[in-house]
């Protein structure tokens, strides 16, 4: 896996359990509709333990989280909530605890696989590498 395993640009390909998950984390119904099958482009720049993780949403909205593995950072959720988190690296996965869900991201078979878990609901999003 090399040090820059995450660097790249990824396009949303598919997801599982979206409705169950977003309902459990309390997203409003308009946000839920907006996010369904949303062709999010995720852009990751990894420099050793430093990451810049940007999500480009259709319509021009962008969320960027910049963090260093093992250090507390200011982060923002899918729903726009600000919080502090310490991102860890476990078995090649980036792992973070958001205010109301646990999130992991890994590169597997050239795809970005993100898994979020809240109250027993497991949401999986797969993105294919486009750059």
Q: Nutshell version of this structure?
A:
With 131 residues, the chain is mainly beta.
Question: What's the structural blueprint in terms of helices and strands?
Answer:
Elements (H helix, E strand, L loop, with lengths): L7 E9 L1 H7 L4 H7 L5 E7 L2 E7 L5 E7 L3 E5 L5 E5 L1 E3 L2 E5 L4 E7 L2 E8 L2 E9 L2
Antiparallel strand pairs: 1-2, 1-11, 2-3, 3-4, 5-6, 7-8, 8-9, 9-10, 10-11
Pfam families: Lipocalin_7
Main location: cytoplasm
Organism: Aramus guarauna
Textual characterization of the structure:
The protein has 2 helices and 11 strands; from the N terminus they run E-H-H-E-E-E-E-E-E-E-E-E-E. The chain starts with 7 loop residues before the first strand and ends with a strand. With 131 residues, the protein is mostly beta strands. The protein is globular and about 40 Å long. It has helices at 18-24, 29-35; strands at residues 8-16, 41-47, 50-56, 62-68, 72-76, 82-86, 88-90, 93-97, 102-108, 111-118, 121-129. It has a 9-stranded antiparallel beta sheet with strand order 4-3-2-1-11-10-9-8-7. It has a two-stranded antiparallel sheet with strand order 5-6. It has one domain: Lipocalin.
Quote the CATH topology.
Lipocalin
Approximate shape = globular
Order of helices and strands: EHHEEEEEEEEEE
Overall strand count: 11
Lateral strand order in the biggest sheet: 4-3-2-1-11-10-9-8-7
Mean pLDDT: 91
Bin the helical content: 10-25%
Sheet with most strands: 9 strands, antiparallel
In CATH, the architecture is Beta Barrel
Report the CATH C-level class. Answer: Mainly Beta
Instruction: Tell me the β content.
Output: over 45%
Ranges where pLDDT stays below 50 over 5 or more residues in a row are none
How many domains make up the 3D coordinates? Answer: 1
CATH homology superfamily name: Calycin beta-barrel core domain
Query: How far apart are the first and last residues' alpha carbons, in Å?
Result: 17 Å
Structural class: mainly beta
Rg result: 14 Å
